[in-house]
């Protein structure tokens, strides 16, 4: 026993002696070391290197930057820190940069001692969960140039003391719960009007009230982004804002502003985006004729005086998006607006445009959508130059021709962009890992969402647009080319473009902590600059799964020596830690399953992480659906059942939907839910309610359907499904002569095989298929061209792809058949398509390919050709609400 006791005493002495030497020769100033060590004891999940020594600068500790033994920067972005920011932070007197962004478990109020950091130049606390008031003491940080407190839970007013930050160029307080008025300098009291070097005023998504003070703006200011959208501001738009001629983005939408728009708004000639929607603005429509740089204009949902289309409809040649919904525009919509070369969308529903509508012959090649729902348009003249979405539902012109595609609500035909994984084949990855589009190897990417607050475009399927975003990300963030995956771009309820982003490590499966801290800082400090047409942005990161687990505090070297004395205690501790780690992992997996719903779904081929592959439907966040149903209020409940309840809701674009919300006990597994929404998104039929989207977040499973008025969702679904099922069953049973019980693919093979066996080309009338033909076709009599149609059909179902004709060949052959039957197809594919769509060609009514059928009205009388010609997509024909008027 004596040798053992001597060894213990020796180890204790050596431990004490080496600790003393370490204190004497530490590379860190004792004041900074004490402050940071104190913070370490209050935070969980600090980097492992923080527990390996007591010398932050000498070891060094990850995320700590030192100069002359003083800590000058603390960067811990996306480290999964848990805890509070105590007053000990004020002990780091030489700190110049503090970045704690994207640590969502940092909570509690900010310490006033932040005001002691007199050398601080950068303060970034974005994407955390801090609460309480913003300390007045931040006004003491005279050297501060970058302040980002966005996406927290701050309440109370904006401190007037921030007006003392004369060097500040970035001020972002967005997405909090701030209240009260905007502080303006009065006597010795400072205000935001003193921030003459500021370029960014981001106050959007708060609860600010009162007016926009005229004193807030002046010609001495350098502002480029002014964002006050999503508040409770009242009063007039101050004319002084038009003196800030450096402005590029002005968002005042979703407030309660009223009165006339300032006459001198035209002075803002550098403005790229103007959004004044959802206010109570009155008077004449604003004059924008000199604002040649404008890409995006939204003046929807105001109370402007009724007028014809403003003159600037003909002059703003840089426009990509024009939105004036629920307006008071009337008269003829000028065709010149559709000729702007960059134009992508024109949204003018719920106005009073009337008379004839003509898009002209010079149409922007980028134009994807023209929405003119609920106007007073009576006639339409179209050409084959425009083949994308045009919506005329609710206009008189659709009264007689409601079955035309333009007189029906149309889903977007193009899928929003997603980075291609086609080169990776069907490779699958374990849970939480995803396929890198560059290497096709499984790895743990750095994930999050980019929110673009004012993009100058609306088209989400343009590959060139998003390729440029991918390239800028990997280039400016120092990543490997091709290592960026983008998914699910959409405009959320705040009218921000939201894009899911995954950044992959250049080698191996993981980023190290230094790389995560660097990338997080680049995205939070705005070091990364996206292509200019994406506009101002912010980023919110997800927790990163470091290979060392949650990154809990490590033991110091002195304690390690002590533990070495008792091996038995060490083993017991390791067992305890192991049990704790397993429990923590289960909790983390559960939390990730709630916050990252796709992580729990096994990947399906090339969908990178199991996200469902949708056709026309999109993902909704829980907050979006909660907002559009008024927090799932009882007044919006329209049905219920064993699965849960159905709610009526209105999306941000005005579309009314039915939201099926599963109750907890009835929810199916994630894989089954994914399979269901993928199937539903691919099913499109006039007798089926369409799937608009889904939500799988925070333990919720919700399906968003088209809203069917005049009845419950159950009744509407039941009616449509019954109709469709009946038609399909009749066709299968009558045509084949028996009930098939095989799978759909086998049914199809059976039909083809049965037809091939019976085929008899010597039978000039029915070619041996009379017994299995649809009676509606068989009984027509003279089947003109049936043999050639049959040959074409048989070619289309050949086993080998090489033996099947292309779609263009099929269309061409059909045109020849129709021409031989006496129909005018105008000799172009688009012409033929349009004739089929609208049931008419320029020279006469379209006839059934097998028989002459005379169209009749509801009284049984023949419909004249003039009315059938009314909607012609190819020539100069016009569509009229009155039969015979062209």
Give me the secondary-structure topology.
Blueprint: H1 2-24, H2 30-42, E1 64-67, E2 70-75, E3 82-84, E4 97-99, E5 105-109, E6 122-124, E7 129-132, E8 146-148, E9 153-156, E10 170-172, E11 177-180, E12 200-202, E13 207-208, E14 225-227, E15 234-235, E16 249-251, E17 256-260, E18 273-275, E19 280-282, E20 296-298, E21 307-308, E22 321-323, E23 329-331, E24 345-347, E25 352-358, E26 369-371, E27 376-381, E28 389-391, E29 434-435, E30 442-443, E31 446-452, H3 463-476, E32 484-491, E33 497-503, H4 513-524, E34 537-541, H5 557-565, H6 567-595, E35 618-619, H7 622-628, E36 637-641, E37 644-650, E38 656-662, H8 670-682, E39 691-697, E40 700-706, H9 713-736, H10 744-758, H11 775-778, H12 786-796, H13 807-820, H14 829-838, E41 840-841, E42 844-845, H15 865-868, E43 878-880
Parallel strand pairs: 2-4, 3-5, 4-6, 5-7, 6-8, 7-9, 8-10, 9-11, 10-12, 11-13, 12-14, 14-16, 15-17, 16-18, 17-19, 18-20, 20-22, 21-23, 22-24, 23-25, 24-26, 25-27, 26-28, 35-39
Antiparallel strand pairs: 1-2, 27-43, 29-30, 31-33, 31-34, 32-33, 36-37, 37-38, 38-40, 39-40, 41-42
Keywords: ATP-binding, Glycoprotein, Kinase, Leucine-rich repeat, Membrane, Nucleotide-binding, Receptor, Repeat, Serine/threonine-protein kinase, Signal, Transferase, Transmembrane, Transmembrane helix
Transmembrane segments: 559-582
Main location: membrane
What does this structure look like?
With about 900 residues, this protein is an alpha/beta fold. Among the domains are: about 420-550 and about 565-600; about 620-720, Phosphorylase Kinase, domain 1 (2-Layer Sandwich), CATH 3.30.200.20; about 780-880, no CATH class. The chain is about 25% helix and about 20% strand. The chain has 15 helices and 43 strands. The strands form 8 sheets. A 15-stranded mixed beta sheet has the order 1-2-4-6-8-10-12-14-16-18-20-22-24-26-28. The protein has a 6-stranded parallel beta sheet with strand order 3-5-7-9-11-13, with no helix packed on it. The protein is globular, with a radius of gyration of 33 Å. Mean pLDDT is about 80; it is low at about 1-25, about 550-565, about 590-595, about 600-610, about 710-720, about 720-735, about 735-745 and about 825-885.
């Amino acid at each position: 026993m004596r040798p053992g006791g001597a060894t213990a005493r020796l180890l204790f002495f050596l431990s004490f002696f080496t600790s003393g030497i370490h204190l004497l020769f530490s590379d860190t100033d004792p004041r900074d070391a004490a402050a940071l060590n104190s913070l370490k004891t209050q935070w969980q999940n600090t980097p492992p290197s923080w527990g390996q020594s007591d010398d932050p600068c000498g070891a060094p500790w990850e995320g700590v930057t030192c100069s002359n033994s003083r800590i000058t920067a603390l960067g811990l972005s996306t480290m999964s820190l848990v805890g509070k920011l105590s007053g000990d932070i004020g002990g780091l007197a030489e700190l110049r940069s503090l970045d704690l962004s994207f640590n969502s478990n940092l909570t509690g109020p900010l310490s006033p001692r932040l005001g002691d950091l007199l050398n601080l130049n950068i303060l970034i606390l974005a994407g955390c969960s801090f609460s309480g008031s913003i300390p007045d003491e931040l006004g003491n940080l005279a050297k501060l140039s970058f302040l980002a407190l966005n996406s927290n839970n701050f309440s109370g007013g904006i401190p007037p003391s921030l007006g003392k930050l004369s060097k500040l160029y970035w001020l972002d307080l967005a997405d909090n719960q701030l209240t009260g008025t905007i502080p303006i300098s009065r006597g010795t009291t400072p205000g935001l009007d003193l921030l003459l070097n500021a370029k960014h005023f981001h106050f959007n998504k708060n609860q600010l009230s009162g007016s926009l003070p005229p004193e807030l703006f002046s010609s001495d200011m350098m502002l480029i982004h002014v964002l006050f959208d999503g508040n409770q501001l009242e009063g007039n738009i101050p004319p002084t804002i038009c003196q800030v001629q450096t402005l590029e983005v002005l968002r005042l939408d979703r407030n309660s502003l009223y009165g006339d728009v300032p006459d001198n708004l035209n002075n803002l000639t550098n403005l790229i985006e103007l959004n004044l929607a959802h206010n109570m603005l009155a008077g004449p429509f604003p004059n924008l004729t000199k604002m040649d740089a404008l890409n995006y204009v939204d003046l929807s949902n105001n109370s402007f005086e009724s007028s014809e289309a403003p003159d600037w409809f003909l002059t703003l040649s840089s426009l990509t998006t024009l939105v004036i919904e629920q307006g008071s525009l009337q008269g003829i919509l000028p065709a010149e607006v559709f000729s702007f070369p960059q134009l992508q969308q024109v949204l003018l529903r719920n106005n009073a445009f009337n008379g004839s509508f003509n898009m002209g012959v010079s149409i922007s090649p980028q134009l994807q959508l023209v929405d003119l729902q609920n106007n007073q348009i009576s006639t339409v003249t179209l050409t084959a130059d425009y083949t994308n979405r045009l919506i005329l539902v609710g206009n008189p012109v659709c009264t007689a021709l409601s079955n035309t595609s333009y007189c029906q609500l149309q889903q977007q035909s193009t899928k929003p962009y997603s980075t291609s994984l086609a080169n990776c084949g069907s490779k699958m990855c374990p849970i939480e890992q995803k396929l890198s589009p560059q290497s096709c190897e499984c790895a743990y990417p750095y994930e999050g969402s980019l929110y673009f607050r004012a993009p100058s475009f609306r088209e989400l399927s343009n590959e060139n647009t998003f390729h440029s975003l991918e390239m800028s990300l990997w280039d400016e963030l120092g990543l490997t080319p091709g290592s960026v995956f983008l998914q699910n771009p959409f405009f959320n309820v705040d009218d921000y473009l939201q894009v899911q982003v995954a950044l992959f490590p250049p080698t191996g499966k993981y980023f190290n902590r230094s790389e995560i801290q660097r990338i997080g800082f680049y995205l939070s400090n705005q070091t990364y600059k996206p292509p200019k047409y994406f506009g101002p942005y912010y980023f919110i990161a997800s927790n990163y799964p470091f290979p060392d687990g949650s990154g809990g505090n490590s033991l110091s070297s002195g304690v390690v020596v002590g533990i070495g004395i008792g091996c038995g205690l060490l083993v017991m501790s390791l067992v305890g830690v192991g049990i704790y780690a397993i429990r923590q992992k289960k909790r983390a997996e559960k939390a990730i399953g709630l916050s990252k719903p796709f992580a729990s779904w096994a990947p399906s081929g090339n969908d990178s992480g199991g996200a469902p592959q949708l056709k026309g439907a999109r993902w909704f966040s829980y907050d979006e659906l909660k907002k559009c149903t008024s927090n799932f209020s009882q007044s919006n409940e329209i049905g219920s059942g064993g699965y849960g309840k159905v709610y009526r809701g209105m999306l941000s674009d005005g579309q009314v939907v039915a939201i099926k919300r599963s109750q907890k006990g009835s929810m199916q597994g994630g894989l089954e839910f994914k399979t269901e929404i993928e199937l539903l998104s691919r099913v499109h039929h006039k007798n089926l309610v369409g799937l608009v989207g889904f939500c799988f977040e925070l333990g919720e499973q919700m399906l968003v359907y088209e809203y069917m008025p005049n009845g419950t969702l159950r009744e509407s679904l039941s009616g449509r499904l019954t109709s469709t099922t009946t038609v399909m069953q009749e066709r299968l049973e009558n045509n084949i002569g028996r009930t098939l019980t095989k799978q759909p693919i086998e049914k199809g093979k059976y039909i083809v095989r049965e037809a091939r066996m019976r085929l008899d080309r010597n039978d000039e009338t029915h070619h041996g298929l009379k017994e299995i033909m649809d009676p509606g076709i068989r009984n027509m009599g003279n089947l003109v061209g049936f043999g050639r149609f049959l040959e074409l059909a048989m070619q289309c179902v050949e086993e080998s792809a090489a033996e099947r004709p292309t779609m263009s060949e099929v269309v061409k052959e059909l045109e020849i058949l129709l021409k031989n039957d006496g129909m005018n197809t105008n000799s172009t594919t688009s012409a033929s398509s349009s004739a089929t769509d609208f049931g008419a060609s320029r020279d006469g009514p379209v006839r059934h390919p097998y028989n002459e059928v005379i169209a009749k009205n509801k009284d049984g009388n023949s419909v004249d050709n003039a009315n059938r010609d009314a909607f012609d997509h190819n020539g100069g024909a016009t569509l009229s609400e009155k039969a015979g008027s062209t």
